[in-house]
Amino acid sequence: MKALEKVAIFLVMIGLERGRSIIGMMDSDEISAIVPKIRNLDELSQETQECVWTEFMQLGYRDNMNPSEILSMIRLLFNGSKIKDKEGRKNFR
Question: Sign of the CA dihedral 88, 84, 14, 41?
Fold first, then answer.
């Protein structure tokens, strides 16, 4: 699974309000990359959700993070730069 797909799953998993606040901080290119991925998500298996959740926890996600901190953490998957529809970090499963 590509990093962009995992970000889409993660944004859905953290809930509509938090996900929207993070997307609201993205630039138009990032929004253009992530929104279609979110819209195209099918039913997520429990295994997929657990895998994505575990990986984001390993990246440092905590429930008390603000949207800006979460977006910065997400961008680590893209080598610290903006979110794009290309492979992110190679070691992100």
Answer: negative
pTM over 0.90, yes/no? no
Structure tokens at 14: 């953290």
Give the model's pLDDT for residue 68. Answer: 96
- Residue 21, judged by CB atoms within 10 A of its CB (0-12, 13-18, 19+), counts as middle
Q: Label residues 57-85 b or e (16+ Cβ within 10 Å = b).
A: eeeebeeebeeeebbebbbebbeeeebee
Alpha carbon distance 55, 36 (integer Å) = 22
CA distances from 70 to 10, 43, 64 (A): 11, 24, 10
Backbone angles phi, psi at 90, to 5 degrees: -70, -30
